[in-house]
# Entry
Amino acid sequence: MDIKQIQELIKFVSKSGVNEVSIEQKEFKITIKTNQAPTYVNAAPVQPVPQIQAAGATTTVSVSAPAEQAVAAAPAKDDTSNYLTIKSPMIGTFYRSSSPDKPLFVNVGDEVKAGQVVCIIEAMKLFNEIESEISGRIVKVLVDNASPVEYDQPLFLVEPA
# Structure
């Protein structure tokens, strides 16, 4: 696999919404991971992909996953339809507290009010306090501390008050 094929694979993974792809061959193994929320797919057995010719070498890529295993691997979805989402208003790095030695702004189970600071997002060395636009109880934190976030990425699930 050459660098162009790897770049095309990365582009495909980022556009497809898949969280992780692993390819293993005799000479190498490659794993591509993204920060997106998990996507669960029920897959049926797949027929082998046609062979790829590259510089005199022939590579066959095939994927197979019995449908029973794919269904068992996908956990039961939580019913989140009655929750509201606090989303990131910008691209940056997500922090749950103002510094490592300070307490977290909010924890799961905490009540929040509109206008209350719930996290900080650092963008270009500027620390932006992100305030809740809704009142309610924090049900789930969707992003790990000190991890990158995208514009409009869900950060918290809130049960409305």
Q: What stands out?
A: The helical segments are 3-16, 67-73. DSSP finds two helices and twelve strands in the chain.
